[in-house]
Amino acid sequence: MAFEEKELSEKFLQWVWENQFLTPPFTTINGVKVEILSPGILNKEDGPDFKHTLVKLDNKLLQGDVEIHRLSNDWYLHHHEVDANYNNVVLHVVWKYKSQDIFTKSKRMIPTLEFLQFSKKPISKLLKDYNEEMYLVEKETCPHLPKFKILIDVIETQGINRFEERKQKIKKLMKIYGMEQATYIGIMESLGYVKNELQFRKLARLVPISKLQYLSLRNPIKKRVQIIKTSLLGVAGLLTCEFQDEWRKIKKEFKKTMPRESWQFFKVRPPGFPERRMMGISYFWADVMDKGICSFLSTHSLKEIENKIAQGGISKSCARTTILNVCLPVLAILYEGSDEEQEVLQNYKNYKRLSENNITKKMSRMLCWDKKKSIAIKQGNHEIYYQGMIHIFYCYCRNKQCAACPIKQ
User: Fold this and answer.
1) What is the DSSP letter of 351?
2) Is residue 342 part of a domain?
3) What is the C-alpha to C-alpha distance for residues 280 and 219, in angstroms, rounded to an integer?
4) Does residue 127 sit in the same domain as residue 167?
5) Beta carbons of 231 and 251 less than 8 angstroms apart
6) Total-model pTM
7) Per-residue pLDDT tens over the stretch 77-91
């Protein structure tokens, strides 16, 4: 059956990519071997077409974004080369290559894979099979769903597994950096969410908690906060005029700084801007310095910890996310083997749900989360079930490991 190329919309090509109607082995137009471990999640907002993609290029594992186009020069027609939101693209997938290499704003060349060479079926047959409504709705339902009670139990177990995974991550950091610095790194990472997580981790290493203590501990609280704000903003490359005088006094204490361009602001709401998070958390660091972070966490209620983290303008939502991802795992480590550890785990199980994100929304659709609303709403009020869905996504759905998924067992 003949077809016209204008029928090949980007949505159709996204459908082909997401369902991997492609036949390996793959190579880029420059002959680089490609292994697709996970096609990623379709991004329905601005930015690259697929997020959380996992590929190997000549056996080098890469995680990032994929952009889909009909023709390779559409990259420039859409002005992606001047858009920092496309800096994390690891693979450009096109229907046809038009003899033009593409580059990100950061001047990195992106390898290109051409659909035409690897299509599993004739394109005319794929076009016939393609149904946008099925793609957008029905294809998102998991085909292996058990009875709802079993599903709930599996998701809860996976939520606990995610908590244990976080504990192990923090334990590894503690072996390298010690208890205080590891907890400090964890909290700083949590402030960045996905877009600035790595940047905050780097900042926490360039400005360790011991350095902040050395510079500010003997000062009254107000001065302490000013020194901590200046240290974080100065090293992050986000200094404003207000802190210039203080920075001149202390910048010799820091060997390295970060370029402003390393921070992501696109699709970040103003309360989540990196400099606001740094200034906000400075009040918390100033308060907990005397006795130490871990001592503070172990002697205060979760509500008190939330209020302390949020006191400088950090949102309550961000504070609660930090408690879930960092403070509770740290407390579980501190109390390991005691009755208090079980209390921490119970606090985690009972933790009220946080805001949804793209992964939890996708997983909710896949797992028919709202089919039995009375049960789903009751269970869904606790964050452990959403953590369980995230864990299932990263361990199984993203890599299409359906055979190993506990939902199918």
Assistant:
1) P
2) no
3) 19
4) no
5) no
6) 0.70
7) 888 998 888 999 999
